[in-house]
Design goal:
The protein is built from nine helices and eleven strands. By secondary structure, the chain is of the alpha/beta class. The chain binds iron/sulfur cluster.
């Protein structure tokens, strides 16, 4: 089958070779564990049961998980993926968190038929999605956790070679909102259904951040759960771009927060740290465990 799961529509026959996303049809993962560095309604106290899939259709030059998006990981069967869902659920995870699974949408849907988790399923993605692919997952996913990286064409082209990202992401986000029109939390504040939109604030790209925030307020509404991530550090090939070769300045983050407030985005998660954030990036050696990453899992 010629793959057209993501907006790249590269048409690769992934039974024979990898597409632009860098991985074949057989599922590859870098790690599965409980993870506590997501937003509080996702991580909770027991961690999010996270499956880090290898490969990525977007391949941003500054990717904070560069080894993983470049295809590092181990091959597993669909049955093993279903077993991982069960293992993470049994370990006490609040949810099953599928990180960058767009190019494995068919396998995820198949695995969920083998074992449908009793806890919410989170689709944690780059935002560069096709509505038709999301449709395949509409009965599987409870919580949509998309990035909204760019609202401007220039950075989308420059950093991700995806000038159509702003349009595709907006279409995808609107469709996700349609699929999950309400944000539902349990008594402990853990999200059960809904959507959280994420934006990684890039150094030297304040205009893009403002444009993203404006679109979130305008098209998705002021009550949207919006995560403004300020933990950027130069990774991957970021050093090739002088503006990306440094950490984010506190002032750049403050401007982003102020604009969100001005736009009336009342449900914004603030996360800024000047610490070395790469320490929170798991090692993608294929480990599968119910333990919490960073706590000797
Ligand atoms: S998911 Fe991968 S193989 Fe499929 S269209 Fe996108 S880049 Fe190409």
């Amino acid at each position: 089958m010629n793959c057209r799961l993501c907006p790249r529509e590269c048409g690769a026959d992934r039974s024979e070779s990898a597409g632009v996303c860098g991985v074949p049809q057989t599922v590859m993962i870098g790690r599965a564990c409980r993870h506590i560095w997501e937003e509080p309604p996702i991580s909770g106290t027991r961690g999010s049961g996270t499956v880090f899939f290898s490969g990525c259709p977007l391949k941003c030059v500054y990717c904070q998980n560069f080894a993983l998006s470049s295809g590092q990981g181990v091959k597993i069967s669909v049955r093993e993926l279903a077993d991982i869902f069960k293992l993470l659920e049994d370990a006490g995870a609040h949810n099953i968190n599928l990180v960058t699974a767009t190019h494995y949408a068919l396998a995820v849907a198949e695995a969920a038929e083998i074992y449908r988790p009793k806890i919410p399923v989170v689709f944690n993605c780059g935002g560069y999605e096709k509505v038709r692919t999301l449709e395949l997952l509409k009965d599987v996913v409870d919580i949509w956790l998309p990035d909204y990286k760019y609202a401007l064409t220039l950075p989308a082209e420059k950093y991700s070679r995806a000038p159509d990202y702003p349009q595709k992401a907006l279409e995808a986000l609107l469709y996700m909102r349609e699929l999950a029109p309400e944000d539902v939390f349990d008594k402990d504040g853990i999200m059960q259904k809904g959507m959280i939109v994420r934006h990684l604030v890039l150094p030297g790209n304040t205009e893009n951040t403002f444009a993203v925030e404006e679109n979130v307020a305008k098209y998705l509404g002021e009550n949207t759960y919006f995560s403004l991530m300020g933990q950027y550090y130069p990774a991957g090939e970021a050093a090739r771009f002088p503006e990306l070769a440094r950490r984010l300045k506190p002032l750049e983050y403050k401007l982003a927060v102020a604009r969100a407030e001005k736009l009336g985005l009342v449900n914004t998660f603030i996360q800024f740290s000047e610490e070395e954030e790469s320490k929170y990036t798991p090692v993608f050696d294929g480990t599968v465990t119910g333990g919490i990453y960073g706590a000797k899992c």
